């Protein structure tokens, strides 16, 4: 019996791509639902309380999905300080986006968040000394113009919310750039578990400062669902990148904006303006161009979404 040649084995590899795309689409639905629930909950509870529930339940969800396969070996690392620093920055970023949800339409905050890859490029250039080049530089300039279109129109509260959303994008972009050095030694499961552990710890420490209000049964259920969906989304997102290259599944992450537009219209009567749609299209287009450009150079970095 002769061994199958590489050409005969190739279709099995290709068949993994559609499954990876399905995982990514499922993750975008989970993340959009989490954003909508968080926007609803932050109107009645402090943003820290919303986040401690979400991160704590997400930790339990991810542990149930990951630990049966990896055991406690998933926590084996020589970069504990890097995990803590990355998670601390991410805790501030998540706080900013939750505050932004309370001050502006859901789709606007999500659209500005898509500028994170642009800021990741800037941070990588300054910190990792990566060359920007003409293609990257052009994408940055065009992308920032899109952010300005999304952020500028509307009332003062919209502008304040846009500043928080922009702060989230900058911080998340810096986290993405920082993780590039960690992926060489840390698995996706290790990164995910340490992220959840440290986020839960950080928000628990901050909770006495912002205060705690006992949620009603309905709100407690919503917060629990929020955490489960977030944890499931994180796991599906990771699975998508394990099954298919980022260049294949990455573009489908931008479907989060579609779901955010739909949810914002259904639950908050947010009618998207021309500036929002045009700016979102520019930001998404710039991000997709960077994704294509970086994938072609095999330098695309991957990290978990907010």
Count of folded domains: 1
Classify the beta-strand content into a percent band.
under 5%
- Average pLDDT taken over every residue: 83
What structural class is derived from the secondary structure elements?
mainly alpha
- Determine Rg (CA atoms, Å): 19 Å
Task: Please summarize the sheet with the most strands.
Answer: none
Specify the oligomeric state: single chain
Number of E-state strands:
0
Distance between the termini: 50 Å
DSSP helix fraction: over 70%
Helix and strand pattern: HHHHHHHHHHHHH
**Unreliable sequence segments:** 1-14, 298-306
Number of helices: 13
What would your notes on this structure say?
The protein is mainly alpha-helical. It has one domain. The chain contains 13 helices and no strands. α5 packs parallel to α8 and α5 runs parallel beside α13. The longest helix is centred in the last third of the chain and has 27 residues. The protein is globular and about 50 Å long. The termini are far apart.
